[in-house]
Amino acid sequence: MSIITSMEQLEALYGTPNESSTAKEVPHLIPEYRAMIEASPFCALATSGPEGLDCSPRGDPWSVVRVQDDRTLLLPDRRGNNRIDTLRNILRDPRVALLFLLPGSGSTLRVNGRAVLSVDPELLESFVVEEKAPRSVAVITIDTVYFQCARAVVRAGLWDAARHIDPKRLPTPGRILAKLSEGRVGGETYDREWPARARASMW
């Protein structure tokens, strides 16, 4: 196996990016980028901390983040598994990266920035859904933002219903939990009860 071990080797292999790959990157939102974010109900949020890296899905029925201004995004922390890996990381290393998906579009949007966690009562109240507020909101200051071309989404056929996977072909969460916990948690009961539990604890 031949391994790349230097920046010189890497750059020689890939060459110099063309202007269309570099001109799109700016340190703030432009109207076009704002429109893309406001149309995105889902993003992956990447963070780093002493224990390692974390990449966590975030989603809402509407825009997954709120644009406060051209340099600031607000991301509520909705109900989850309470591992708080992402939040622990942000407390110790504020750097974050977000990848926004737009259902039906091949383009994605990337944001790199720095986050702090706010528990301001008025801010939390502004994100209430079904009388439930998030416990915290990540206030993200944008360092850089740019769109990613559609090649990866097109290659994956991500929005092509004909290529969607039948969930019955996959191992269920209950089955995985039962195997890893030697039957202490999970199993068929977990899978059967999860849809109702999720509806009751969505927010």
Describe it.
The protein has 203 residues and is α+β, with helices and mostly antiparallel strands. It has 2 domains: 7-156, Roll (Pnp Oxidase, Chain A), CATH 2.30.110.10; 165-200, no CATH class. It has helices spanning 7-14, 19-22, 31-38, 85-92, 121-125, 151-156, 173-180, 187-200, and strands at residues 42-49, 52-59, 66-69, 72-76, 95-101, 108-118, 137-148. It has a 7-stranded antiparallel β-sheet, covered by helices on one side. Helix 7 crosses helix 8 (187-200). The protein is globular. The mean pLDDT is 96.
Give a topology summary.
Elements: H1 7-14, H2 19-22, H3 31-38, E1 42-49, E2 52-59, E3 66-69, E4 72-76, H4 85-92, E5 95-101, E6 108-118, H5 121-125, E7 137-148, H6 151-156, H7 173-180, H8 187-200
Antiparallel strand pairs: 1-2, 1-5, 3-4, 4-7, 5-6, 6-7
What would you say about this model in short?
The chain has about 200 residues and is of the alpha+beta class. The protein is about 30% helix and about 25% strand. The protein folds into 2 domains: about 5-155, Roll (Pnp Oxidase, Chain A); about 165-200, no CATH class.
Please supply descriptive tags for the structure shown above:
203 residues, Pnp Oxidase, Chain A, 2 domains, seven-stranded antiparallel beta sheet, 8 helices, 7 strands
- Which overall shape is indicated by the principal axes computed on the Cα atoms? globular
How many angstroms does the end-to-end distance come to?
A: 49 Å
Q: Enter the CATH topology name of the largest domain.
A: Pnp Oxidase, Chain A
- Please name the CATH architecture of the largest domain: Roll
Helix content bin: 25-40%
Query: Mean pLDDT across all residues, rounded?
Result: 96
In CATH terms, the superfamily of the largest domain is: Electron Transport, Fmn-binding Protein, Chain A
Task: Supply the number of helical segments.
Answer: 8
Q: What's the Cα radius of gyration?
A: 20 Å
Number of domains in the coordinates? 2
Low-confidence stretches: none
Secondary structure category: alpha+beta
Q: Which series of helices and strands comes N to C?
A: HHHEEEEHEEHEHHH
Number of strands: 7
Strand content: 25-35%
Strand order of the largest sheet: 2-1-5-6-7-4-3
CATH class of the largest domain: Mainly Beta
Largest sheet: 7 strands, antiparallel
